[in-house]
């Protein structure tokens, strides 16, 4: 697809002459192309959100099953959800949350299944980047689709795997931070909170209670043949922010009084789109 087609979202009149499906395809092509300024990405996400919200409203009042979500395949879902990555700009992530919410609403059960497939595909790949993206997506989607995300989170074997996984030595603490953000979001749900308390408490307490001055001794005791350097210590040391987040999650486990909001998040139809 040429550059003019990719950037067609900059030309509202041209977009208006296309069908909703055609507009959706072109916006997705722009998002999948990447390499654009954050402001341009946010505009594309906003346009896609409006198309999805309009589609959901139309489908509710019509017998036709024709929907713009028909052109959103697994590769498109992968692209959209990847904008929830903590390494994206905060503004981009915020707009991507709205788009994801609109997609899940418009796509219904198919959207829920796509989310689940995306999450576990990433977990099964098991790379540094895949874990970060999967955990970030779960953390972002929990508040807007709590039932769907709780079902994913409570899949047999997932929560028990988190403690051993987080005790690995990663090339940065972003995996650990993303996991903690997911646990913090999941703690809104009572069943998820119980699972976290059962399987993750020991690891969370280790994070909170870590004494940096004792770390070199601990490493030497476990791995006596390994030369302990400043860099290797830094890779295993938890930052203050990580320790504080772990402490917040533990506090929620102990209090156990958090509940989901009584109502769903407000609809986005009335937002002003660019």
From TrEMBL:
Keywords per UniProt: Cytoplasm
GO cellular component, one term: cytoplasm
The UniProt record lists the keyword Lyase: no
Pfam family, one: UNC45-central
Localization of this protein: Cytoplasm
Domain UNC-45/Cro1/She4 central: 75-253
This protein's name: SWI5-dependent HO expression protein 4
Species of provenance: Diatrype stigma
Lineage: Eukaryota, Fungi, Dikarya, Ascomycota, Pezizomycotina
Gene it is expressed from: SHE4_2
């Amino acid at each position: 697809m040429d550059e003019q087609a990719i950037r067609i979202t900059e030309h509202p009149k041209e977009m208006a002459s296309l069908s909703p499906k055609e507009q959706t395809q072109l916006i997705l092509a722009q998002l999948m192309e990447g390499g654009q300024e954050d402001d341009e990405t946010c505009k594309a996400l906003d346009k896609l959100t409006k198309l999805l919200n309009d589609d959901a409203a139309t489908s509710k009042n019509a017998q036709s099953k024709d929907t713009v979500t028909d052109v959103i395949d697994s590769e498109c879902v992968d692209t959209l959800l990847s904008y929830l990555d903590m390494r994206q700009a905060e503004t981009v992530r915020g707009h991507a949350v709205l788009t994801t919410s609109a997609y899940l609403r418009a796509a219904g059960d198919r959207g829920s299944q796509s989310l689940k497939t995306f999450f576990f595909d990433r977990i099964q790949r098991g790379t540094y980047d895949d874990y970060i993206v999967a955990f970030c997506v779960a953390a972002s989607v929990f508040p807007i689709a709590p039932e769907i995300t709780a079902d994913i989170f409570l899949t047999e074997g997932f929560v028990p795997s988190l403690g051993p996984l987080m005790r690995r030595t990663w090339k940065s603490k972003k995996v650990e931070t993303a996991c903690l953000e997911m646990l913090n979001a999941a703690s809104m749900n009572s069943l998820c909170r119980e699972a976290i308390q059962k399987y993750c408490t020991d690891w969370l307490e280790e994070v909170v209670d870590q004494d940096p001055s004792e770390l070199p001794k601990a490493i030497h005791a476990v791995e006596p043949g390994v030369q302990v350097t400043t860099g290797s210590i830094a890779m295993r040391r938890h930052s203050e922010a990580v320790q504080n987040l772990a402490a917040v999650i533990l506090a929620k486990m102990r209090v156990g009084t958090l509940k989901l909001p009584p109502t769903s998040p407000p609809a986005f139809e009335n937002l002003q789109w660019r």
